Amino acid sequence: MLVQNNVPLQAYNSFHIVAKAQSLVRIASEDDLREVLQDPALADEPKFVLGGGSNIVLTGDVKALVLKMEIMGRRLVREDERQVVIELGAGENWHEVVDWTLQQGWPGLENLALIPGTMGAAPVQNIGAYGVELQDRFESLDAVDLSTGKALTLNAAQCAFGYRDSVFKHDSAADVALGQQAIGLKGRLAIVRVRLALPKVWKAELGYADLQKRMQLENCSSPTPRQVFDWVCAIRRAKLPDPAEIGNAGSFFKNPTVTPEQCADIIGRDPAVVHYPLANGHIKLAAAWLIDACGWRGKSMGQAGVYPHQALVLINRGAVDGADGATGGEVMMLARAIQTSVYERFGIMLEPEPVVV
Ligand code: EPU
Known about the structure:
Layout: E1 3-8, E2 20-27, H1 30-38, E3 47-50, E4 56-57, E5 65-69, E6 74-79, E7 83-89, H2 94-103, E8 128-129, E9 132-133, E10 138-145, E11 151-155, H3 156-159, H4 172-178, E12 189-199, H5 209-218, H6 225-239, E13 247-251, E14 257-258, H7 260-269, E15 275-277, E16 283-285, H8 287-293, E17 300-301, E18 304-306, E19 313-316, H9 328-346, E20 355-356
Parallel strand pairs: 2-5, 3-5, 4-20
Antiparallel strand pairs: 1-2, 6-7, 7-12, 8-9, 10-11, 10-12, 13-19, 14-16, 15-16, 17-18, 18-19
The structure holds uridine-diphosphate-2(N-acetylglucosaminyl) butyric acid.
Residues 129-130, 239-240, 250-251, 254-255, 274, 286, 288-289, 292, 297, 310-312, 353 line the site of uridine-diphosphate-2(N-acetylglucosaminyl) butyric acid (EPU).
């Protein structure tokens, strides 16, 4: 086991914020993880599990021991007339796995193409796009308890998935105090493998307006899974900055959900507000629209900016490998200024989506 000290993290976070890990260990297998947890010098150290770094804001050097998850592996677990179950190592790149499943003839993940990050991080925020969320294809995951070293398997119910949410984002003590969720596993586990269940009877999910537009544009009403994959890639490339070129962490805020009464109040303030009714009677508001309406699109504070083509995405205006980029503090200052102006105008407090470290 090699513990590296003062490791630059700029290349390991998609915002490309300059920060260091005081110490970092690469975890290529479950045995590597056990070795760290059994090491007398490391066992009691605070630990931070790092995947693709595509959903974090680093606000300084990381003092906890960074466990960089690099466990690879893709295999078919079982196949029956209903579904194909596959198992993926936590370090696998999400998008490459989506592409691979299509090559194998196992569709079902195509709407989630081009989402940055790793397999192990996907359940943490229940990644979602174009009408499909990870939870729709999730079977179970294997994890290791960072304090006891014990291996455990969690099913979907135990992961408590919600919109960009799971048990892995909640701190149990804080949430009990808030009266929300009794069990939180934030920072307590390292996810080592994820199993996905892909339905044998495939039906394209084309409900989102952007995909409807593509169907018309291409004059194609029954696309193949690969076509849907290509469409999703094209839509994302047109709207979202590529983290390899412009530092960002995707959508910076969650789309808020409001009651019909709250929505009526907001429509009273601005009739153009983009909103979608949900099955449970609540209404989802487009956070991008709220931010845009407050005039933030294309604006910046220091080196942190609002992406000109999608107001929900905050960007680092510095070079991805330069020293002149935004600090995590600048990103958070911009985020707070956006929250304040959206709150003052619409009475809605936007909730940040990435994890602030
Ligand atoms: N809009 C504006 N101004 C903008 C951008 C968008 O007014 O600058 C309005 C448009 O009317 C648009 C609406 O906002 O119709 C919604 O925008 P978009 O379709 O781009 O989707 P989104 O709600 O902003 C969500 C996810 C994305 C996901 C897309 C597609 C969240 C927080 N974000 O974005 O996820 O790719 O839908 O499903 O739910 C991510 O989580 O990092 C992410 C990129």
